[in-house]
Amino acid sequence: MELLIMIVVMKVGSPEQEIERIEAELQDWGLTPEKIVGKHKIVMGLVGDTASLDPLQLQDISPWIESVLRVEKPYKKTSLEYRNGEYSSVVVPTPSGDVAFGANHPVVVIAGPCSVENESMIIETAKAVKAAGASFLRGGAFKPRTSPYSFQGHGESALELLAAARDASGLGIITEVMDTADVDKVSEFADIVQVGARNMQNFALLKKVGAQDKPVFLKRGMSATIDDLLMASEYILAAGNSKVILCERGIRTFDRKYVRNTLDLAIIPVLRSLTHLPIAIDPSHGTGIAKFVPPMAKAAIAAGADSLMIEVHPNPAKALSDGPQSQTFEGFKNIMQELSVIGKAVGRWSESTVSV
Ligand code: PEP
Ligand code: MN
Question: How confident is the model at residue 355 (pLDDT cuts 50, 70, 90)?
Answer without folding.
Answer: very low
